[in-house]
Amino acid sequence: MIAVRLFAALREAAGTSRVEVEDSAAADVGALLDHLAGRFGPEFQRIVEVGTAVVDGETAARDRRLQPGDEVALLPPVSGGGGQITADRESGTNLADWQEHRRED
């Protein structure tokens, strides 16, 4: 399984902050993005096409191969500043904390 964390507008478009995807649907980042766009619809696709994928704490291109157990964070384009991107409203996890946690693993 590939664990996917969705942030901000992508979280809103999907209606969830976390998704798990079968390895067979996500050979690489591009296949994962296409799979999720098909699942969550055109608004999600519009946002994810201009967003950023982060795999295990590192920015990744569409051709980045995925392995079982990888964790992918999908970020919409960000403008402005000053605030933190909240990863999960329930836990209050923000992107900076999540990335630091990934580096420690």
List keywords for this structure.
105 residues; alpha+beta; Ubiquitin-like (UB roll); five-stranded mixed beta sheet; two-stranded antiparallel sheet; 4 helices; 7 strands; globular
SSE topology sketch:
Layout: E1 2-6, H1 8-14, E2 18-21, H2 29-40, H3 42-48, E3 52-55, E4 58-60, E5 71-75, E6 86-88, E7 93-94, H4 95-104
Parallel strand pairs: 1-5
Antiparallel strand pairs: 1-2, 3-4, 3-5, 6-7
If you had to describe this structure to a student in words, what would you say it looks like?
The structure is a single chain. The longest helix has 12 residues, at 29-40. Helix 1 packs antiparallel against helix 3 and helix 2 runs antiparallel to helix 3. The mean pLDDT is 84. It is globular and about 30 Å long. A five-stranded mixed sheet has the order 2-1-5-3-4. Strands 6-7 form a two-stranded antiparallel sheet. The chain contains four helices and seven strands; from the N terminus they run βαβααβββββα. Strand 6 and strand 7 form a beta hairpin. The chain has a single domain, classed as Roll (Ubiquitin-like (UB roll)). The protein is of the alpha+beta class and 105 residues long.
Given the structure, what is the number of helices? 4
Gyration radius, rounded? 13 Å
How many domains? The number is 1
CATH class type = Alpha Beta
Q: What's the shape?
A: globular
Low-confidence stretches: none
What is the residue-averaged pLDDT?
84
- The CATH architecture is Roll
Structural class: alpha+beta
What profile does the largest beta sheet have?
5 strands, mixed
- Care to count the β-strands? 7
CATH topology: Ubiquitin-like (UB roll)
CATH superfamily: Beta-grasp domain
Hey, roughly how much beta strand do the residues contain?
15-25%
